[in-house]
Amino acid sequence: MKHIFIILFFICSVPCCVAQIGEQTIVRGTVLEEGTYNPFSNANVEVVGGAYTTTNAAGEFRLQARIGEELVIRHEDFETVYHTIGRNDNIKLTVAPNKTKPKAVKRNKQVTQERFQQYLDSAKNVLKKDAKISIEYVAKALATDQEQTLSKLQKAKAYELLGDIYTYWKQHDLAVSNYKFAIRDNVSTQRQLKLAKAYTLNKNYQESISLYNELKNKSLSNYNEVLRLEGLGDTYKNTGDLNKAITQYQQALTLAEKHLFTPKVTDLNSKIAEAYDAKGATKPAEDYYENSLNLANKETRKRAAEEKTKVADFYSKNRSYREEIQLRQEALKDIEVLSEDAVEKEQEIDNESALTPQKQNYKIANAYAAQENIEDAIPYLQKSIKEAKTNNDLVVQKDATRKLGELYRAKGDITKAEETFKDYEVVVDQLYVQKEQEISQAARFSRDLTLKQTRIESLEKDRALNESRYQLAVENQSLVNQSNRRQKWIIGVLIALALALLVAAYLMYRNNKQQKFANNLLALKSLRSQMNPHFIFNALNSVNSFIATNDERAANRYLSEFSGLMRAVLENSEEDFIPLSKEIELLQKYTKLEHFRFQDKFDYDILVDDAIPTNQFKIPPMLLQPYVENAVWHGLRYKEDKGNLLVHFQLKDEHTVVIIIEDDGIGRAQSKAIKTDNQKKQKSQGMSNIQRRISILNDMYSDTIAIAISDKDQTNHTGTRVAVTLKKH
């Protein structure tokens, strides 16, 4: 419903653009002062639904809205304008400025209350069409209470209507909150019954039972007592206590029959039947269903169709297919009439309802199929698919198409079965896309409603704040001096506390840093202690090899060289860093030992640029040895012809040395390929140790060392090149 509210303003038609963009429109307009036509800048322009902007220096505004939404324009220098946006609407506002602001602030109580009721009526009219707009109208109704001109009863009606809106759109948690607000402002049996029902729908079963029992002790009308007993029965049914549910339903039925509440008599017979059916008591359930069916046939066509489908489901569950088919065929006739009425009224068919031709045709086909009557089942499935396509009901279309394919296959018509199953796959894909969109839309819908509820609650808080503002102002005036003294004392304490916290934080930071440094030192010591056994083990393997080949002289020479190397290694084992010159000396001794054993496998060169001040650069001891060892043992040792090993110390700049360890062996890929299964399971302890040491040292000394490993021959993946970058620290 469109409303145009104009208070002491003249609205005339002049050029203004409203361009349609899908369901949205772009609204442009101008606000001018009456008589002088001077523009009003910084006027607040708001649309019911959330859009907001202000007028610019020329008095112009532009925002996005939908046709039918209400435009609200506010400014302290003129009274608020309300205007409903229409199709191809051209608007320009000329407003009369207020002569005295105090009078402009006050509202006429009667006008405010009339507007309040108009907003509520508008909200009711669109309740089942657009939840967002309906909620916005209620929010605007509550916003009219800026000067507390609304009674608590009126506010209770507004919150009750919000609860009804949220209940209809299945936002039960929000419904509970608003029914509570309504009861807070004005307690009534009707609102309490709605709250109890909302509790049940929101699965707050104990709260619902408690409230229904509380209402038992109040003086209720006969109809409200029926509603209370029925609601209590619904709650017990949802909790699985079917005996209590049946007891409450039967008490409600007795009272409804006594006072001739005919629709309730029908509903309660149906609910008692459902409860007995859930218990497995088929005979009592059938008797009560027979009663509800006879009563429903005397009511509206829609109620009759609803009960027929419900009883048909009961017969289907109990395999009484003949009775089920008869009822569904009767329901189909009722649904056909209801569908024609819906088309005349331009109403959409609700696919979620059981009262759709596609669902009933599908269930009739299932009943025939259960009787192995395929010939009669197939036409109903074809009707179901056709109706589902017309009404865009992909769920039923999917189920009916699959069932039709199964029946064709059972009938032996494989060609039609294959064609039908192809159609089924297409529908499944369409349904998947549709469900994804529905999930996204539902999440967005729920989020939007929650945001609107938050806005309404903020209005409530603002209202409460306005009511207490004057009292707080008076109290604050008397407490100013005392508050100032207290604030100074508190500020001093806070400053002292902040300083203490800063000192404590600094001490904790320093202690943590020292502890981390100590832990790193301990870890380095542990790793260094692991390097020595690893190195000794590999060296003794070489001695063992000489002894195994009865080469005692070579073994003695090797041991002599090895002892000199071990002495140098042990001397440096306690140091985190040693001069680069000592590392070069260690590396020369080690490489000499390896070459002594594998003279026929490789030659080597260790080159040191003369410009390198080797005593000024520091390096972790035994850092380079594992890479040389890998080059010999995993690259050069397996090469068919004699290889070469190069260790080159290069000065990159005055702060950086680059150490290249390069071999022309078989390469990493081939070396990995020829490893035995046992070797593949073993992780190189030396390389792992080196990586951990470098990680710790870089953490302690700011990225002093960097390692880069690559193939020497990138094309054939042979040879290995290790580049160690060493910086001064």
Describe this structure in words.
Residues 1-19 form the signal peptide. Residues 524-602 form the Signal transduction histidine kinase internal region domain. TPR repeats lie at residues 226-259. Keywords: Coiled coil, Kinase, Membrane, Signal, TPR repeat, Transferase, Transmembrane, Transmembrane helix. The chain is an alpha+beta fold and 729 residues long. Among the domains are: 10-106, Immunoglobulin-like (Sandwich), CATH 2.60.40; 107-187, Tetratricopeptide repeat domain (Serine Threonine Protein Phosphatase 5, Tetratricopeptide repeat); 316-441, Serine Threonine Protein Phosphatase 5, Tetratricopeptide repeat (Alpha Horseshoe), CATH 1.25.40; 525-727, Heat Shock Protein 90 (2-Layer Sandwich), CATH 3.30.565.10. 63% of the residues lie in helices and 13% in strands. It has 23 helices and 16 strands. It has helices at 101-105, 109-125, 131-143, 152-168, 172-185, 189-201, 205-216, 222-239, 242-258, 262-279, 282-296, 301-317, 321-344, 357-370, 374-390, 394-411, 414-548, 552-571, 580-597, 625-636, 668-673, 677-681, 685-701, and strands spanning 10-12, 18-21, 24-33, 44-47, 52-54, 60-65, 70-75, 78-84, 92-95, 578-579, 602-608, 618-619, 643-653, 656-663, 705-713, 718-727. Strands 1, 2, 3, 6 and 9 form a 5-stranded mixed beta sheet that branches. A 5-stranded mixed beta sheet has the order 11-13-14-16-15. The longest helix is centred in the middle third of the chain and has 135 residues, at 414-548.
